[in-house]
């Protein structure tokens, strides 16, 4: 009996310690800059490396339960969002990056997990408006930053900075 009780206590402690922080959160917001773009044109498409990165982001996030996907109207952000949207059969909604404060308020009110695809010159401010820690500005040549913002029920935010890599997505 004592052995069973100790095992039950140990199991309860392990589950408490190992529970992911997202389980305690109202929702998690993932934010990425669009993937690598062509160097010419006013609204350039993604390069082959950018398309590979977009597929990799989709493979990375497909199992986290993304319920909403937001992107600016530009082709490079739409193309970055599309692989995950296709995998999950979730529509890509467009947001206006010039109205970030309103968008941040809207994002905070959403239940579940959300992906936002933005730009190097607006993404860090959006992270800040959401209560996260953006780190340094995103360089024009930087495409691998992936923010995970877990928003707790009390409104506190935990920021995890991850990195995406171009290339073949991980095996299922």
From TrEMBL:
It holds the Pfam family His_Phos_1. Residues 1-25 form the signal peptide. The keyword Signal applies. InterPro entries: His_Pase_superF_clade-1, His_PPase_superfam. It comes from the Bacteria. Keywords: Signal. Gene3D superfamilies: Phosphoglycerate mutase-like. This is Histidine phosphatase family protein. It comes from Massilia glaciei.
């Amino acid at each position: 009996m004592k052995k069973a009780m100790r095992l039950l206590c140990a199991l309860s402690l392990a589950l408490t310690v190992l529970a992911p922080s997202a389980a305690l959160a109202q929702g998690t917001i993932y934010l990425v800059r669009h993937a690598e773009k062509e160097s010419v044109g006013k609204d350039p498409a993604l390069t082959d490396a950018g398309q590979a990165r977009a597929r990799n982001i989709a493979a990375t996030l497909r199992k986290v339960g993304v319920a909403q996907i937001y992107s600016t109207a530009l082709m490079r952000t739409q193309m970055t969002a599309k692989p995950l949207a296709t995998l999950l059969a979730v529509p890509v909604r467009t947001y206006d990056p010039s109205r970030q404060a309103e968008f941040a308020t809207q994002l905070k009110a959403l239940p579940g997990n959300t992906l936002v695809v933005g730009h190097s010159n607006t993404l860090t401010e959006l992270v800040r408006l959401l209560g996260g820690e953006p780190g340094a500005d995103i360089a024009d040549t930087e495409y691998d930053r992936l923010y995970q913002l877990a928003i707790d029920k009390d409104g506190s935010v935990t920021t995890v900075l991850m990195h995406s890599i171009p290339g073949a997505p991980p095996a299922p």
